[in-house]
Amino acid sequence: MRLTTGWQSTGNSTALERVPIERRDLRDDDLAVRVDYCGVCHSDLHAIHGLVGKPTDGLVPGHEFTGTVTAVGSAVTEFAPGDRVAVGTCVDSCGVCDMCRAGQENYCLRGAVSTYGGTDRIDGTTTKGGYSREYVLRSDFAYRLPEGLEPAAAAPLMCAGITMWEPLRAAGVGPGSRVAVAGLGGLGHLGVKLAAALGAEVTVLSRSPGKAADAVSLGATGFVTEERFAEAFGRFDLILDTIPGPHDLAPLLSLLGLDGTLCVVGYPREVPVQLMNLTFGRKKLTSSGTGGRRGTAEMLAFAAEQGITADIELLPSARVEEALTRLEKGDVRYRFVLDLADLG
Fold first, then answer.
1. Whether the Cβ atoms of residue 187 and residue 158 lie closer than 8 Å to each other
2. CB atoms within 10 A of CB 289
3. Closest Cα partner for 90 from 58, 47, 119?
4. Superfamily of domain 2-159+309-343
5. What is the pTM of this model?
6. pLDDT tens digits, residue range 32-53?
7. For residue 296, what pLDDT is reported?
């Protein structure tokens, strides 16, 4: 076993404790990665609070990180020590099911292995995430970090970025598309950047009038608060709903045009829906869960070409409780990233 250090939650608490963590010895197709920067995702909070089905005992969160390869298994040829890499929410899959063959390993029919709180396919251990100084994973699920992408600001691309990218691509968004982003947070601000770079006309839907200037600076051409939703009735082809808490979908569905799509990606729990809200205009309600290897590689290449990274607040990892507490209050513009250098 390899020994490293990380931040662990106990008792559903955001007061994480610094603890030693065991990583497996490298298998033939493994990489060891020194974790340099790890984003703090709202789903980390959901996991800590036991809302997404991951085991909470000994939870080490973190599933969007960048770092440096320190060692490779005997069968690895595409990476070498010293390479800059990025790792996302999925670190293994069966590789042979229909989803895996379609490049959607995140939906592996035999169970994708999530970066934390998952079950390793070989030894059955529970995966521990990127709030740690070292991570060991199958090399097929690491991505070379493109030159030009600053590693701290690129880390959130591996969850927030790909979570926005996949529904944009599935909807065929491009010039002439009318896209709205509901909620301008860690997910939403990257949704605005990516949709605008794809050529869409982008509008931000928000409860916070003070974010209007930010929305424009990120690439939006419109900004609509809740009390003005009636003015945007039937306007959009796609709405990316990034709101992280329970909310009524009916007002958002009213903003879709014919055959429009509402993609809910911010809240992983039950949300009531009246079917008549879908019937009028033949609307679609869908969701999306990060992305597979093909889509993630495509997103990283596009982000590098367009110069897209997250707007971040970088904190030493010892301030992880502060990051989680402020994130729960919505006090961040727009993504916390932990610098793991203080773990040694």
1. no
2. 15
3. 119
4. Medium-chain alcohol dehydrogenases, catalytic domain (3.90.180.10)
5. 0.94
6. 999 999 999 999 999 999 988 8
7. 98
